[in-house]
Design goal:
Number of strands: 43
Shape: globular
Number of helices: 13
Strand content: 35-45%
Radius of gyration: 27 Å
């Protein structure tokens, strides 16, 4: 090689854009382990009762973790609980603490440790009462087996603690350690103070009891699971003989648990059951709590179809509950999780979609007056907080860009006017953890290219008081990779506009045609097209830089703030509109962008996304030629009552809808390459779905591939090497069956 050529080569390299010099394509290991970009400040924020301070865990100079309180107004801090206090009194070793809850005076704290997983979350463990003044540690429920206490809570006066153990409710006096059993009939069949599988999964119900305002009563849920079908999971890997795990799981159209609520004196005695009308197996009680400052229970009762939510008030000592308000919808209604009582409990807040948007309303105590609080053509997505003194409610929503989220405010007793509060120059998504007073909030801003920027802001006015972290290092780490960013685009299904995004490889050449991998979810529970930080999207970037364009499309019914009709037009049709929109959406993108190779379209999804992957592969085989379906529902009759019937009614009432929406109906349509992935220990979407689908594929002579992960749950992450193996399997399948690279 001559000198002149070398000089020309060097000069050419030096003239390349700096971003190209800095390019670093994530390896599979880096994408899976997320080691390239490290963000800070993503932990939870725990406001103190006074609303002026919040606490968090902080590593000290000795390597331990202290509980540290920060003042909102000046970011000054104090150590509330030094690490040296968090020591197991039996072993003298530091505790692994899962959570801490303070009493009102911050003189005592409930320390939750030695936690164990119950389905998705580790909600059982051991509890200690810590005296924050002298460091004395007292174990609760010492008579019960290790790691069996759940949901321990101080009484209003802080002298007692109530908790659940082995499906019974107990109250323990802190001063002398005397334990009173409030229920004694708890068993594998009768569940007190917590919930069966389906209530936990679909209503988010775990903590199943409440203290009365005066501390004299405990109200709790009881579930009678007798009559509910029991599902068996077979563990073939941890013993030479199979171990059978059994639990009640009501599949669509089958018998539910009988659920009721009652109250009992903290001194023990008989439970008074609240006489709600209707068959307890064909009605739900998803929410129950005491009205503040009273001994009255506010109960939400849904019918089985979940299109009617009746509100009952039941006063301790009075025989009959009173129905004060009823909300209905032709499709389904949602639970209300942020009910706020105002003007000495004369009014309460309520969210409803009765006028076509999810709005906040004020309802009078007798249910006769209804006033619109948020009068705008937008969805009230979720409450952030309330400033009671100023009468302002803060909430998340968006007016036009459905991939983004902003903070808005409205007067509780105003004219319905809605005002944006989030800064106009920060496009993306905003999250807030607001103090109980509504005066302060920890504010997090991010978008697809910007790691979380976290600061303390004051209200009203959204003024930055101090920065908590700007994640500048993470931002530089992301930028230094030189990757093509996630691009937000529009596509169409017929005349309906859909949001989408795409990621292109670093060496993208618009004159060539590239294969596509579509990431789909498609069901009403979530959305995939969101302008929010996703860790740099390293898995998608890894796939893109194998030589693919990675795309995601939000179809009709996706859980985004586009109004009631968008979300609920899929009622009774889950799976059908979704796959139609995915097929039409990618076809429209193919017409719009010449670099998309419509002969090489792949699709993949997890859970509901796995189901839509199958529907797309089977129903639109001329569009999608390669698919990877993970943890999928093959037949909608195999999923649980609460979720499936919410969107589809029962199989008995909607047999055609269940048939049309279930992938197994269309198996004969498969033409392309299909990989099935499932965990055999999946308690949520049972491995049964995979076996039934395989049986049908074989029946129709269809060739496919399958990988089953023994005793992995719905997330397929347990046990050594699982996540890496799963992702490598997927990457290898794409490369073998969906040829990569521009042509």
């Amino acid at each position: 090689m001559n000198r002149r050529f070398i000089m020309m080569l060097v000069a050419g390299l030096l003239s390349l854009p700096s971003s190209l010099n800095a390019q670093h394509i994530p390896t599979l290991e880096e994408a899976v382990n997320r080691t390239l970009i490290k963000t800070e400040g993503g932990g939870s924020v725990n406001w103190m009762v006074d609303g002026e301070r919040y606490w968090k865990w902080e590593r000290n100079a000795n390597g331990g973790f202290d509980v540290v309180a920060y003042k909102a107004k000046d970011n000054s801090k104090e150590v509330l609980i030094p690490a040296k206090m968090l020591v197991n009194p039996k072993t003298g070793k530091p505790m692994t603490v899962r959570n801490i809850v303070f009493n009102k005076e911050n003189t005592k704290a409930l320390v939750y440790t030695n936690s164990k997983r119950v389905w998705r979350y580790d909600t059982r463990g051991d509890y200690y009462v810590l005296d924050t003044q002298n460091g004395e540690m007292q174990q609760l429920g010492k008579e019960f087996p290790e790691s069996t206490l759940m949901f321990a809570k101080f009484s209003p006066d802080g002298t007692k603690v109530a908790y659940v153990s082995q499906n019974n409710v107990y109250v323990e006096n802190i001063a002398d350690g005397i334990v009173t059993a409030l229920t004694t009939d708890g068993s594998d069949i009768i569940v007190n103070g917590t919930f069966d599988w389906v209530y936990e999964e679909e209503f988010g119900c775990r903590d199943g009891f409440r203290w009365s305002s005066d501390g004299q009563y405990i109200a709790y849920w009881q579930s009678d699971t007798s009559g509910t079908g029991w599902f068996d999971i077979i563990n073939n890997v941890d013993s030479i003989y199979p171990i059978i795990q059994r639990f009640p799981y009501p599949k669509a159209g089958t018998t539910n648990s009988a659920v009721k609520v009652g109250y009992v004196s903290v001194n023990g005695g008989a439970t008074t059951w609240i006489d709600l009308p209707g068959d307890p197996r064909n009605n739900y009680i998803p929410r129950m709590d005491f009205i503040p400052g009273t001994n009255e229970l506010f109960i939400q009762q849904m019918n089985r179809s979940q299109n009617t939510n009746r509100i009952w008030v039941s006063k301790i000592g009075e025989p009959k509950p009173v129905n004060i308000f009823t909300d209905t919808d032709k499709a389904w209604v949602n639970t209300n999780d942020n009910v706020l009582w105002l003007k000495d409990n004369q009014y309460f807040t309520w969210t409803s979609e009765r006028d076509g948007w999810r709005h906040l309303y004020l309802i009078s105590r007798d249910g006769k007056q209804t006033k619109l609080v948020t009068d705008a053509q937008m969805d009230y997505e979720n409450e952030v907080g309330v400033d009671m003194k100023k009468g302002i409610v803060y909430f998340i929503g968006t007016l036009d860009n459905y991939t983004q989220r902003y903070l808005y405010q409205a007067k509780l007793f105003g004219n319905g006017k809605v005002e944006r509060v989030s800064p106009l120059n920060e496009s993306g998504q905003h999250r807030y953890v607001m103090s109980p007073t509504g005066k302060w909030a920890v504010h997090t801003f991010s978008n697809a290219q910007t790691p979380p920027v976290i600061d303390m802001v004051s209200f009203p006015g959204h003024k930055t008081v101090c920065g908590i972290t700007d994640n500048a290092e993470a931002k530089n780490q992301y930028k230094s990779l030189g990757l093509n960013p996630k691009e937000f685009v529009k596509t169409k299904s017929g005349n309906l506009e859909l949001d989408a995004w795409m990621i292109k490889p670093i060496n993208f050449d618009a004159s060539k045609k590239y294969p596509v991998i579509i990431e789909v979810y498609g069901e009403p529970a979530s959305s995939t097209v969101q302008d929010v930080w996703g860790g740099g999207d390293l898995w998608d970037q890894y796939l893109a830089n194998l030589g693919y364009i990675v795309i995601s499309i939000d179809n009709r019914g996706a859980n985004v703030p586009r109004g009631r009709e968008w979300r609920k037009c899929i009622y009774g049709e889950v799976g059908t509109f979704a796959s139609e929109d995915q097929a039409r959406g990618i076809q429209e993108l193919g017409r719009k962008y010449s670099f998309i190779d419509m002969s090489r379209i792949g699709i993949t999804g997890w859970s509901g996304g796995g189901s839509q992957t199958l529907n797309c592969m089977f129903r639109y085989p001329d569009v999608f030629n390669t698919g990877i379906a993970v943890a999928f529902v093959a037949d909608q009759r195999l999923y649980d009552t609460i979720y499936q019937e919410r969107y589809m009614n029962t199989p008995q009432n909607n047999p055609e809808g269940y048939k049309k929406g279930s992938p197994i109906t269309y198996v004969s349509g498969l033409k392309g390459n299909l990989l099935l992935i499932h965990g055999t220990g999946d308690d949520n979407v049972h491995y049964q779905n995979c076996e039934i689908l395989v049986n049908e594929l074989v029946k129709h002579g269809k060739i496919f591939s399958q990988v089953s992960y023994p005793m992995r749950s719905h997330g397929i992450f347990e046990r050594e090497g699982t996540t890496m193996h799963l992702r490598k399997t997927m990457a290898d399948y794409w490369l073998k069956h969906l040829p990569a690279g521009g042509r």
